[in-house]
Amino acid sequence: MAQVIATPAEQTRPLLTAHRFRLYEALPWLLAIVVFFAFPGYRLLATQILCMILFALSLDLLVGYTRIATLGHTAFFGTGAYTAALLAANGWTEPLSGLLVAALGAGLLGGLSGWVVLRTHGLTLLMLTMALTIMLYELANDFDDITGGFDGINFENAPIFSIFEFDPIWFGVNYWYVLAVLFALFLLIRAIVYSPFGRMLIGIRENSRRMRAIGTPVHSRMVAIYVISCAMAGVAGALWVQVQGNITTAVLSFELSGEVLIMLILGGAGRLYGAFVGAAAFKLLESMTEQILGTDQPYWMLAIGLLLVLTVLFARRGLLGLLEDAAGLLQRDRL
Question: What is the pLDDT of residue 121?
Answer without folding.
Answer: 86
